[in-house]
Amino acid sequence: MSDCIFCKIVKGEIPSTNVYKDEQVTAFRDINPAAPTHILIVPNRHIDSVNMMIPEDEPLVGRLFSVARQLAEKEGIAEDGYRLVVNTNAGAGQTVFHLHMHLLGGRQMRALG
User: In a 3-state reduction of DSSP, which class is residue 18?
Assistant: First the structure.
């Protein structure tokens, strides 16, 4: 998508603080962090949201989780714990309609539920 900010970050058209990139996934620091460690992990191929995934996307989404685990270790938050968040659609807080995962850590998280 030509107007998607995350697609532009993946292509290098918009500067970001990248912490990881491979042929499937790009990860970069959030510009408005909600925790000391706040990294966005996005598939390089545009998918609007979880609702737009197809069965063939399952390995790609699995890759997002693998990269999250690697980054949590690299950032030094794996042992204490971290949160992974995927918002789907506006009612859940999705503001950029390109599937992405938030890796949050570096502070005590409030229990959910």
Answer: strand
Closest CA to 36 of 97, 100, 83: 83
| Closest by CA position to 63, among listed 19, 96, 95, 26 | 26
Q: Can you tell me the distance from the alpha carbon of 36 to that of 85, in angstroms, rounded to the nearest whole number?
A: 15
Give me the domains of the chain, ranges plus CATH numbers. Answer: 5-105 (3.30.428.10)
Would you say 40 and 96 are in contact if contact means Cβ atoms under 8 Å apart? Answer: no
The residue assigned the tokens 């925790």 is 35
- For the question of residue 100 being annotated catalytic, the response is yes
Could you say which of 38, 46, 98, 100 is catalytic? 100
pLDDT digits (tens, 9 = 90+) for 66-83: 999 999 999 999 999 999
pTM above 0.90, yes or no: yes
